[in-house]
Write a structure and sequence with these properties.
This protein is α/β, with parallel strands linked by helices. The chain is built from four helices and five strands; from the N terminus they run E-H-H-E-E-E-H-E-H.
């Protein structure tokens, strides 16, 4: 996934994130096939799962959406950003457990005027099955 960048001096625009369509392939190199609750990388595993399933949803609906992530040089990050059509921007923070939105969400809102939505185990079906 490519980074979202509209302010090149403040945002990292060359690094990419890699997600696996098959989480077993993701788990094989690190040799960890334990249940998510037992894994040290459960947050990254959860993020990978949600993003891949969201991409499948858009593909199954025949829609084209630009998928990005946001990261600034100061360390602020937004996990998933969608841009559909003429400036329709949506931002999501994907969290395992009951974590809250951090300062990155506020920073993104201040920069782009877009609210960041928290997606966790309680509301992930709304994220995966939009509309």
């Amino acid at each position: 996934m490519q980074p979202f960048s509209r302010q090149p001096r403040r945002e990292i625009g060359k690094q990419h994130k890699i997600y696996f369509l098959d989480l077993g392939v993701r788990s094989a190199p690190i040799g960890d096939f334990n249940a998510p609750i037992l894994r040290a990388d459960r947050g990254a595993l959860w993020e990978n799962f949600l993003i891949v399933e969201r991409l499948k949803t858009w593909c199954n609906q025949g829609l084209t959406v630009q998928n990005r992530f946001g990261r600034t040089y100061s360390g602020a990050e937004v996990d998933y950003i969608e841009e559909a059509g003429a400036g329709d921007l949506r931002a999501y923070e994907l969290k395992w457990g009951n974590a809250r939105l951090g300062r990155s969400a506020g920073s993104f809102k201040d920069s782009y005027g877009v609210e960041v939505t928290l997606v966790n185990q309680e509301n992930y079906l709304d994220f995966l099955l939009p509309g």
